[in-house]
Amino acid sequence: MSVPNRATLWGRVLVDELAKGGLEAVCIAPGSRSTPLTVAFAAHERIDVYSHLDERSAAFFALGRARRTGEPTALVCTSGTAAANFHPAVMEADRARVPLLVLTADRPPELRDSGANQTVDQVGLYGDAVRWDAELPEPEADERKVRSLRTTAARALAETGGVSPGPVHLNCPFRKPLEPIEVPGDVPESFADTLAGGGRDGPFVTAADGPRVPDDADRDRLAAALADADRPLLVAGPADPTALPALEPAAVAELAERLDAPILADPLSGLRFGPHVGRESADRESGAKPAETRTVYGGYDAYVGELPPPDVVLRIGASPTSKPLRHWLRDADARQFLVDPAGEWREATFTATDLLAADPAAVVDGLLEALPDGDGRPELDGDWRERFEAAERRHWAVRDEALATDALADDPFEGAILAEAVANAPDPTTVFVSNSMPIRDADRFARPRAAELTVLANRGASGIDGITSTALGAGSATDEPLVLVTGDLAFYHDSNGLLALERCGVDATIVLLDNDGGGIFHELPIEEFEPPFTDQFKTPHGLDFSALEDVYDLAFERVAPADFSAAYRRSLETPGTQVLSVAFDSEASHRRRDALAERVTEAVAADREDGA
Ligand SMILES: Cc1ncc(C[n+]2csc(CCOP(=O)(O)OP(=O)(O)O)c2C)c(N)n1
Ligand SMILES: [Mg+2]
Hints:
Helix content: 25-40%
Distance between the termini: 82 Å
Strand order of the largest sheet: 2-1-3-4-6-5
Number of helices: 24
Bound molecules: thiamine diphosphate, magnesium ion
Strand content: 5-15%
Mean pLDDT: 93
Shape: globular
């Protein structure tokens, strides 16, 4: 196949190499300078192309897709400010370890700093938010340069993965003509072979960067500490997207059983939901012996402060969402093993005593080998795990009462919606939860379930700027139902992202918790300072989101809190996208959260007195 010109050659070789390296999807925003990349991606048979109009939304969509799959998604944009609009998602991908490959088109080097149109300094644009960045050589039909291009493409993909996945940036300068226009003599016929793969089957370079396995001494040190513990505890924080597929929840549950240790599972840990959780709670409360493990706990935010501290803690994942949990661990004076595949120190209370740079899945497997099965274990301190079991039961009983329809009609609160959205999500479902109160309410009120729920959020940099797009990107990667629970400011911020519903063929149930502003600020001392609290922090806007129905491919419905359950089920059975907008008074919701937490705390404290 002849190649019309060098820019086209570059685009084709780069895309060919990325496809051979396993790239499956790209998000492209329109522009001229990126033409050689766009034309090559659009023509490639094995890469799914998602077209976006807004680069900020495009990047978050790519982030969401990569987060859901654990595989890199590529991004393409033209030169200039388009590239800067990728930056928020690149930051999130960095902090949350999501593999992203960012391809920014650029003018040739001599036009930089020359007053040329739409030309900014794009080299190193994302600073240290990227795992690696490079500028491609200028296109030329030269054998060595083409080998360099293939090697760079292979390396860029490899650098998005490994022990610390994240974003990689390739800046790609192109000269005109950018379109596949015939330029006689530009690319000799002999380059057909180069295009076919440079004479190699598969990727030009195969890079291997397998999981880190702890050595025997480290494993035995950890196993001995856990085996000798009186009050052992497993804490699972938000999981890295590429770690999720590797970690076997059943293996973690088995480890917890052997140690008789509770697992405190963040909603984003990949461990709060799934078949390993065992029977649903109704069976638990009947007192019947469960068929499977009972070790996964999710209500701890309300009660950990009332329980004795652990003495040995095994921590996997990022820092947990729950502040009471983080503080309880901080004050525990325990031996805390932090297991991190990248060997990073992700623990901002600075109380970890041991950092183990190893893959959590490998550590769990190693511990299962090293620790005896069941009977060999010495007696634990009193009724350590039973105390968690009882506190957990208290928590959900109080919550269930608050969720009863009458109670909701009298005293609605936002947490009830999160509880419902998770409790009644079909098995399986991908649930994306916005920052601010939705993730905190998911942490407190989303009960562990045996269903396969993949609960995701943007907790790397915790922005509210790309929530809808990230959710829809995650939805694009799965046939499961997609549920997004979002606050109104986050929904407003990324309303451009709604265009992906139609352009990218994604359906969702979008639960909009509309408390007319940033409800979270009521939790902060600034609430007392009026002004500027309302105008500058809470920022009520009075926006009527129903107007979005006329712009985007969705149905908008206002739902009373007490009717949410029925509307939610209906939406999940209806094709297309429905926005279920539930109005709340954020102040009243906070009072309700506080009152519920107080009731759980009091009940657990009373149990402690009784048991003492
Ligand atoms: C891009 C970005 N800007 C600002 C913030 C600060 N911030 C955190 S929560 C929040 C309010 C969010 O409001 P909403 O989405 O309605 O959720 P609610 O607080 O009402 O639960 C703001 C402005 C942020 N996290 N990210
Ligand atoms: Mg709000």
